Amino acid sequence: MMQKPQSSSDRSETTIGVALAERSYDIVIGEGLIEAAGKRIAAVLPGARCAVVSDTHVAALYMPRLAAILKREGLLLGEAVVPPGEASKSFPVLAELSERLLKLGVERGDAVIAFGGGVVGDLAGFAASILRRGVRLVQMPTSLLAQVDSSVGGKTAINARQGKNLIGLFHQPRIVIADVGLLATLPRRELLAGYAEVVKYGVMGDADFFNWLETGAAAALGGDEQALTHAVAQSCRMKAAIVARDERETGERALLNLGHTFGHALEATTGFSNRLIHGEGVAIGMVLAFQLSVRLGLCSAQDAERFRRHLQSVGLPTAISDIPGPRPAPEALIAAMGHDKKVKDGRLTFILLHRLGEAFVTTEVPPDAVKDVLSA
Question: Are 152 and 125 in contact (CB under 8 A)?
Fold first, then answer.
């Protein structure tokens, strides 16, 4: 059941546990958490030294501040900075980052701190998983998308020419520290891209949360700390519960990919470029999932239109035609979808909808219906 937002007089942090036996960890959410990050990490990882990985954008804004905090606790090994953007999730950047971390002196008992958005979390997490056969990981997500999704659950990966996140490992963090205050400097486009992952949780399995977002999204996206913290916490609460039940995505966890089969194909066919960032692809992908569900007689057109209008109202793209530049051909999109991680026995896996708040996984989708939706 959806919990109510905290009152304005209660600005204390929220802690959500991810129950994975000996690999369990906490997600800590609140404003100003960066200031106590050193003490918190030292408590979770006593004796560890930390190498901080960030991108040039986040490093310019916050790296001196975090470095000073870690240095004060005797934790700082050094820093590694990668270029921003999806193109950094590649073998060349992974190799360069791994060499840099070794040069800093990261040992088996040390930790890598992923301090950035989803790209940094995926890349630094993957580097941590393979460095010296695995060193410990701390996630400090600085984007809304990373705070509500990619920092939680242990997925790490880089991209391949064939598609997104096809090369990677599960490597759970030891703690996730989500300081919502850091979102204040996030460009509006990145904030909206993260919101696509927030609304996904309501559409996927919590109609009450979606109802709240219809009225609360404007405040959250406008910088209201109470509303934003609630949106992040509810998203993390839902993901933590699913990850605890299905860590390796053998069943229920696939629901978290709502919109992603379409979205990843859109990202691949637009060259993983600034034409379409991940959350925008997910937004369009969820609209397409609704349209496919309606076409197959699984969901009402009213629910699909209600969802589309909500995305449109906050400023997210809702159609393939909203992507700048040449429109990807349906055939190219279907070919890209064929490389999706969820393909089984050559059959595409889709997350479709019965209604707002009720998604399900299926491989029983006629290819012609998919092509029709992509051509519309």
Answer: no
Considering the entire predicted model, what is its pTM? 0.92
Q: Which residues carry out catalysis?
A: 133, 155, 197, 239, 249, 253, 257, 260, 264, 278
Q: Give Cα 293 distance to the centre of its chain.
A: 24
Tokens of 348: 């595409």
11 confidence band (pLDDT: 50, 70, 90): low
Residue range 173-200, pLDDT digits in tens: 999 999 999 999 999 999 999 999 999 9
Mean pLDDT, residues 276-294: 97
Rounded distance between C-alpha atoms, residue 78 and residue 98, angstroms: 13
In 3D space, the residue among 174, 162, 11 whose CA is nearest the CA of residue 90 turns out to be: 162
- Interval 200-215 mean pLDDT: 97
Among the residues of 150-277, which ranges form H helices?
188-205, 207-221, 225-245, 260-269
Q: Which residues pair with 99 in a beta bridge?
A: none
Nearest alpha-carbon partner for 316 in 159, 198, 150: 198
The one-letter amino acid at 346: G
Cα gap 300→229, rounded to integer Å:
32
Enclosing H/E stretch for 317: none
Tokens standing for 192?
């909206």
